[in-house]
Design brief:
This protein is α/β, with parallel strands linked by helices and about 220 residues long. It has ten helices and seven strands. Strand 4 (about 65-70), helix 4 (about 75-85) and strand 5 (about 85-90) form a beta-alpha-beta unit. Helix 6 (about 145-160) packs across helix 8 and helix 6 (about 145-160) crosses helix 9. The chain is globular and about 55 Å long. About 35% of the residues are buried.
């Protein structure tokens, strides 16, 4: 039965949309900010970069006093937590995980009883989509796995730019040579190349570190 005290903000293109829709009350982003119903908890699974996410969450916070868990995979998390006190936890819900594991973070200053409630809820919530959870103790730009894997994917695209090998050969080399569960191009396809590009752009914009600059071919394929 859908829990009427929990709202999940999610779009149909989210990889877990169908399962979550069956188990929870869901609205898209526009519907959520137009709703003034009473909730105990709002789970925001929109996939936005930092600036758009801040705008959306500020609008959402006007409509509810509920605690908010937000997907901050494509954002500079510290900025979100600094500007939006209602956001008590963050998750990485759409980035493809071969081990079916979701990373999450809970504000360090959160009271123990609220932290326990959030931990239990996140575990139960993602068990509905047959995912395990892992608590990340430090916030950063995006999460650990998306940040690292996006860099690997980007480097594979740089190799493709330089015509060092084909996509198939690079994937095969990474699987057989360094025992990766997936090749970088397969991983990008399963996650969504546009999402990989968003993560890289957020990293590069925030840090100005050249290692996060997106490959030309990666950018072109996003179009």
């Amino acid at each position: 039965m859908k829990n009427k005290n929990i709202l999940v903000v999610i779009e149909p293109n989210h990889p877990h949309f169908k399962t979550i829709e069956k188990n929870f009350l869901t609205r898209n982003a526009d519907e959520a900010i137009a709703s003034y119903e009473t909730y105990d908890l709002v789970v925001d699974l929109t996939i936005y970069r930092t600036e758009k996410k801040i705008i959306f969450l500020k609008e959402l916070a006007k409509t509810t006093k509920a605690l908010i868990i937000s997907d901050l995979t494509c954002t500079f998390q510290d900025r979100i937590f600094h500007q939006l006190p209602q956001v008590k936890a963050s998750v990485s819900s759409f980035f493809y995980s071969p081990t079916r594991t979701i990373e999450y973070f809970i504000r360090i200053e959160t009271e123990d009883h609220i932290k326990t409630m959030l931990q239990n809820f996140i575990d139960e919530f993602f068990s509905k989509v047959e995912m395990k959870t892992f608590e990340n103790k430090m916030i950063d730009i995006t999460f650990t796995v998306p940040r690292v894997v996006s860099q690997i994917i980007n480097e594979a695209y740089f190799a493709l730019d330089e015509k060092l090998a084909s996509k198939e050969d690079i994937d095969l080399a990474m699987i057989n040579g360094v025992n990766y569960p997936l090749g970088p191009f397969s991983w990008a396809q399963k996650t969504g190349l546009a999402h990989i590009h968003s993560i890289l752009e957020e990293l590069y914009t925030t840090t100005h570190d050249m290692r996060y600059r997106s490959s030309l071919t990666l950018k072109k394929e996003c179009l």
